Amino acid sequence: MDVEKNLRMAIESGKVEFGTRSGVRSAAKAKLVLVSSNCPSAIRKKVEEQCAKSGAALVTYKGTSVELGAVCGKPFPISIFTVLDAGSSGVLEMGKPPAAKAEAPAEEKEEAEGAGEAAAA
After folding, report:
1. Of 21, 53, 81, 119, which has the fewest CB atoms closer than 10 Å, so is most exposed?
2. How many domains does the chain have?
3. What range defines the domain where residue 31 resides?
4. pTM, whole model, 2 decimals?
């Protein structure tokens, strides 16, 4: 998934908010909150509390606030990116846990090894 492309698409087609004050304020009604890797811990804690109350997904962006601002096409750092409506973007997929499909091959491999050992015995 191209994170940057999905963020830009959410900005163009959905409803998003930038910034710490609006992020803390609107986290309760957000669908996804993206926090930069260098977001101050006090602010992050407030956002985490709001997301926990509302059930909104909280994701840490791998880049800094300066990098997140650049990805969003803004000339300023963005510590918190709040998605209220994803529009036609796939940005909400970032908040979902990895698919169970990724674990299936490992389970199948273990089952196959177990079957091979049983046949050898």
Report:
1. 119
2. 1
3. 3-120
4. 0.73
